[in-house]
Specification:
The protein is built from nine helices and no strands. By secondary structure, the chain is mostly helical. It has one domain. The longest helix has 29 residues.
């Protein structure tokens, strides 16, 4: 997989993005903004801006087309989009089964929390933050930058495993750790095979959208 990112580039961008998340959460809590809008709107938009800004700084001068190409926004074979849709449905069903039968969690608490957030922040901001901005930000950072940077340093297998473990860990959801790891492995393989992050973004959007719809209507 050809790319311009090196491990050092990816590490710096990831650290800056992580610092942004910490700062954003602190600012939101300090000013009490968590009561007025969905925090993910600010957090994930900031991650996207950090990724684009750092990539532009690293590879300047950089055309807009090459910028997005470098981040992984490349044309992929239609077959990979079909695989992404199948993968998204399979992972969602597997996660539902694992939560319901293994952890004995019917999602009631998550549903109550989500429905409360929808009443507080509005359905549009929730859909935008969860179904679109979160998948875009996470795929750019983890599969578009970090995965490619690690491939430059270690084997593709280790790059997939390391980024997937990190992806699962940063969600701070013990019951979902295994599922998140497996999902991240699937998205990483899909990205390397397709040479594009578009299929992984599609799978991520579908998964988050189905989860949001289920929790909002259960």
């Amino acid at each position: 997989m050809t790319h311009g990112f090196r491990f050092f580039h990816a590490l710096i961008i990831f650290l800056i993005a992580s610092l942004w998340v910490v700062i954003a959460i602190g600012v939101i809590k300090y000013f009490g903004w968590y009561t007025t809008f969905e925090p993910g709107l600010l957090i994930h938009t900031g991650i996207i801006i950090v990724c684009i800004g750092c990539t532009t700084a690293i590879f300047r001068p950089l055309t807009l087309r090459y910028l997005f190409y470098t981040l992984g926004f490349r044309t992929a074979n239609g077959w990979y989009y079909f695989v992404a849709m199948v993968m998204a449905v399979f992972f969602w069903i597997a996660d539902f089964w694992l939560q319901f039968y293994f952890f004995l969690d019917d999602g009631a608490n998550d549903a109550i929390a989500l429905q409360s957030d929808i009443k507080q922040f509005g359905s549009i901001s929730m859909v935008l933050a969860i179904c679109f901005l979160a998948p875009m930000a996470e795929e750019i950072l983890f599969r578009g930058i970090l995965l490619k940077g690690l491939v430059d340093k270690v084997s593709p297998l280790w790059a997939i495993l390391l980024t997937s473990m990190l992806f699962a860990a940063i969600h701070f959801s013990p019951n979902d750790t295994l599922t998140l790891f497996v999902v991240a492995v699937g998205y990483s393989i899909l990205t390397l095979k397709a040479r594009s992050i578009w299929p992984a973004i599609l799978a991520h959007v579908i998964n988050n959208s189905v989860t949001l719809y289920y929790l909002a209507t259960v």
